[in-house]
């Protein structure tokens, strides 16, 4: 007769249910049991609110055992306005805020905590009274009386006159070229080469707007030899109208190529509008590096609510934007070249943990008043031919002394540069 299996008794007193981590004295890894995290998760799934016999909830799920006191003291101050601002106080604060914001040397702190929507004046926009001219029921719906649209011009002559008037207003607003205005037929006698349209493509302007959108501080690099010619007023107007929270700094680069009194004069003029600094880009022997770094550190302290700030460098081609970044980093992190157009796309460079530098390709704003000579002298295009209109402003001996010194320093062929200057003066 077979013996019956006796049921094992838990003598140790340890539970053997599935929600016990130390079941049978083994760990979860060796026996394939449940870990403590799995057990806690399963217990959370089974948690339910506690109820009495009648089904009334005594304690909700995930509710703390100690309930705070929810009684509100019957006081009128709890149900009234805590702060009241009168119209005079609001107007005074608005005027003070506008006077501070108009200055380019001030920085608005805690901008997100101020109700700027209440402080800014509403833009005065002319309302179009469409319903006063023609009601909605007369134009649309089953009782509509209008069978054809109301055109602004009834024939081609009136349409042509209206187009001429709008074109004239557009040219006056945008500042049309003088060459078109001089000719009565509206044609220009000179057709420029596509070489003089460098830096005006949509791709490069797209790169510029990417840099502006991602930057907290915008540094416009100017050439000390022609600060006004290499200055982009369109960019400054865009920052004033659409990016009021961004800060603009004018950096006068290549100050080693002009006398000291010229640099002082330009700094005196430019500092009336924006903060201006003189700079000489060089990894070994630089000038103005400490001043620029101190300004950037001040902005990083003022923007303490942000984890890091981005500083964008914009300007004309070949003004030294990449060279300035290399000077701040004290090593070659951006490609530089003596010809314009070396930087093709925007790029991020880390200066410190809280300051990032953004390099931008050279952008040229289309100005029809600039001649080909002005474009060449601004450094927008690379000089290939020895003939340059406007070089007759200086004598041959000045060109010979300057070119021979600069070329000999670079250990190149000085005779080639001297031949280029002599070729021009013999030709003229």
Please explain how this structure is put together.
The chain has helices spanning 28-31, 36-46, 87-102, 116-119, 130-133, 136-139, 156-174, 178-182, 202-214, 233-242, 260-270, 289-302, 321-329, 372-377, 396-409, 414-427; strands at 50-51, 57-59, 217-223, 247-253, 276-278, 309-315, 347-350, 355-359. The protein has 16 helices and 8 strands. It is extended and about 120 Å long. The protein has a 6-stranded mixed β-sheet with strand order 5-4-3-6-8-7, with helices on both faces. Strands 1-2 form a two-stranded antiparallel sheet. With 428 residues, it is an alpha/beta fold. Mean pLDDT is 76; it is low at 176-182 and 407-414. Among the domains are: 197-359, P-loop containing nucleotide triphosphate hydrolases (Rossmann fold, 3-Layer(aba) Sandwich), CATH 3.40.50.300; 385-427, no CATH class. Strand 1 and strand 2 form a beta hairpin. This is Nuclear/nucleolar GTPase 2.
Mean pLDDT rating: 76
Helix-strand makeup class: alpha/beta
CATH superfamily of the domain at 197-359: P-loop containing nucleotide triphosphate hydrolases
Q: Give the terminus-to-terminus CA distance.
A: 134 Å
SSE string: HHEEHHHHHHHEHEHEHEHEEHHH
Number of strands: 8
**CATH fold field value of the domain at 197-359:** Rossmann fold
Main sheet properties: 6 strands, mixed
Biased composition (Polar residues): 21-39
Function: GTPase involved in pre-60S ribosomal subunit maturation.
InterPro entries: G_CP_dom, GNL2_CP_dom, GTP-bd, NOG2_N_dom, P-loop_NTPase, TRAFAC_YlqF/YawG_RiboMat
GO molecular function: GTP binding; hydrolase activity
């Amino acid at each position: 007769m077979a013996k019956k299996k006796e049921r094992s008794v838990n003598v140790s007193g340890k539970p053997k249910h599935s929600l016990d981590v130390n079941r049978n004295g083994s760990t979860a890894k060796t026996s394939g049991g449940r870990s403590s995290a799995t057990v806690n998760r399963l217990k959370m799934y089974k948690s339910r609110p506690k109820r009495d016999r009648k089904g009334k909830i005594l304690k909700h799920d995930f509710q703390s055992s100690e309930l705070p006191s929810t009684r509100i003291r019957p006081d009128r101050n709890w149900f009234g306005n805590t702060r009241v601002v009168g119209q005079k106080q609001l107007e005074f604060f608005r005027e003070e805020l506008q006077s501070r914001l108009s200055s380019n040397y001030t920085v608005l702190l805690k901008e997100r905590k101020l109700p700027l929507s209440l402080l800014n004046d509403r833009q005065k926009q002319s309302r179009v009274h469409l319903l006063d001219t023609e009601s909605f029921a007369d134009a649309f719906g089953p009782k509509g009386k209008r069978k054809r649209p109301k055109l602004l011009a009834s024939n081609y002559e009136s349409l042509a006159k209206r187009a001429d008037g709008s074109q004239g207003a557009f040219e006056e607003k945008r500042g049309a070229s003088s060459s078109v205005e001089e000719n009565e037929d509206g044609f220009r006698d000179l057709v420029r080469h596509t070489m003089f349209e460098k830096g005006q493509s949509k791709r490069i302007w797209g790169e510029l707007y990417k840099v502006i959108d991602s930057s907290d501080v915008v540094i416009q690099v100017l050439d000390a030899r022609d600060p006004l010619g290499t200055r982009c007023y369109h960019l400054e107007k865009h920052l004033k109208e659409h990016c009021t929270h961004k800060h603009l700094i004018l950096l006068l680069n290549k100050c080693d190529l002009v006398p000291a009194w010229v640099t002082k004069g330009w700094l005196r003029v430019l500092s009336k509008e924006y903060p201006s600094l003189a700079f000489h880009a060089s990894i070994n022997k630089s000038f103005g590096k400490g001043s620029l770094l101190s300004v950037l550190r001040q902005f990083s302290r003022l923007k303490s609510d942000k984890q890091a700030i981005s500083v964008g460098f914009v300007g004309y081609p070949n003004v030294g934007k990449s060279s300035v970044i290399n000077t701040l980093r004290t090593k070659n992190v951006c490609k530089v070249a003596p010809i314009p157009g070396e930087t093709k796309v925007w790029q991020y460079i880390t200066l410190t943990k809280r300051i990032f530098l953004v390099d931008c390709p050279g952008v040229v704003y289309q100005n029809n008043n600039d001649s080909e000579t002005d474009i060449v002298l601004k450094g927008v295009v690379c000089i290939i031919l020895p003939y340059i209109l406007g070089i007759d402003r200086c004598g041959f001996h000045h060109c010979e002394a300057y070119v021979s010194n600069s070329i000999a320093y670079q250990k190149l062929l000085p005779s080639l540069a001297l031949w280029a200057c002599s070729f021009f003066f013999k030709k003229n």
